[in-house]
Amino acid sequence: MNGDARCLELQARFTDGPAALDSKRLCDVCADVAQMTGAGIMLMSGDIRRGSLCTTNEVSALIEELQFSLGEGPCLDAFHHDRPVLEPDLANPTEMRWMAFSTPALDAGVRAIFGFPLRVGPVKLGALNLYRDQPGALTDAQHADSLSVADIVAGSLIGMQANATPGQLAPEFEVGADFEFVVHQASGMVAAQLGVSVAQALIRMQAHAFGNDRSLRSVGRDVVDRSLRFDPADPITELQRKD
User: What would the mean pLDDT of 41-63 be, rounded to a whole number?
Assistant: First the structure.
């Protein structure tokens, strides 16, 4: 089968059947086409991670949460470097690149993981994450199919949002989505407290979360409810707890 015919066949996988195309189905079809254990889609904008659009199971949800909280992983590398990031054996990598991410991902059962950027022309949307519970490289066919489904997903996201009410997310995005609204709100508050950009504020929050063995989401909640406040005069502790 030539490349064009295969692309049309894959496109049909996303549109066939009575179910409407939503974010959850996007992830399910991606995992099925690539013959992976699970899949996830992370949306990003510049240096800001918007959160997980969809995941297929608990492990893929954890993968997205780890990447969001730790600021490292295949989706982030694929997005920033604008190329696929492939790790066929997370337990024995040829390159040590995710010091914080790898151990909890392995503990969850991830053995191979692959990130593919999502973009339409110059517009970068995020990344598709695929994982497998057994080590091993992608076959040539799997790699080609993963590139194709990443393109299809990117186009589908643009199409879904194009029909949304201005200023609001498309309803299709709400199915299976886990956008970290509390973290984004907290990032804005910390940016104001420290007089830095939102992206820099997010990094400071991540550092605190990692150093105190907490999730980024829990730190965000404490910032929003004002039980935690970052102090620009204290670069070591960075955060003061209010009594």
Answer: 82
